[in-house]
Write a structure and sequence with these properties.
The chain is α+β, with helices and mostly antiparallel strands and 222 residues long. Helices cover 20% and strands 35% of the residues.
Length: 222
């Protein structure tokens, strides 16, 4: 299992803490008991769970200019038309995907093109499915301008558990569809705002796989 670089320090630190706890328990218990075995198994499982949080799967990159792919693993929680006010300033279709603690936490670009805009916003840490989390939570916004001039906005949102968003893209950079966008440490949510006349492929409750599941098709231009 490949581990994303964002997890190296956390995994190492967690491992040392688990080892220290195990040594303290071992030294201060007079006899080897079932408690020692319980702590050993518990700490090992906990450390493995933390390591698995940062797993980086190998996935085939798919390129199709008409399709918009899911930016992350998770489950669709919102599909609605909203007025995007931060950068594009028009009505767009918003698709929101919630990532649980068991999902892969990497994020991918749903379309290819030039990164036109990125901005990190400091904010609150409401639970990720809260309706106000898109506007009030800690978040990073990325806008990609495609070859035909249309724009797609991706919003990485921190939640109650997630406390750090990592973005690997910068304005002016040309990116391919399903290139890695970034990482959200310990779960949360990603919003994708696409042209509102796009054909939607998903409904609320649908599971999606980042970089693999098409969530919409752009309307073909004549």
């Amino acid at each position: 299992m490949k581990i994303n670089k964002e997890g190296y320090i956390i995994i190492g630190t967690t491992g040392l803490i688990c080892l220290a706890i195990w040594l303290l328990v071992y030294l201060f218990i007079d006899t080897v008991s079932a408690y020692i075995w319980f702590m050993t198994i518990f700490l090992a499982v906990f450390w493995f769970f933390v390591a698995a949080f940062f797993r980086e799967p190998r996935r085939v990159q798919i390129h199709d200019d008409e399709l918009i792919f899911s930016p992350c693993d998770g489950r669709v929680v919102v599909t609605e038309v909203v007025h995007e006010k931060e950068h594009i300033d028009c009505e767009m279709m918003q698709i929101s995907i919630f990532m649980s603690v068991t999902n892969v936490h990497m994020n991918w670009l749903p379309v290819g093109g030039e990164v036109e805009y990125t901005k990190h916003h400091h904010g609150r840490f409401l639970v990720a499915w809260h309706p106000k989390s898109s506007a009030e939570n800690e978040r990073t916004t990325t806008v990609v301008k495609m070859k035909d001039g249309r724009r797609v906005l991706i919003r990485q949102i921190a939640g109650f558990v997630a406390r750090r968003i990592v973005s690997y893209v910068k304005p002016g950079k040309q990116m391919k569809q399903n290139d890695v966008l970034g990482f959200i440490k310990f779960g949360s949510r990603v919003d994708v705002l696409i042209p509102k006349d796009s054909e939607l492929f998903v409904e609320i409750g649908d599971p999606v796989i980042g970089s693999q599941t098409p969530i919409a098709r752009l309307k073909r231009r004549e």
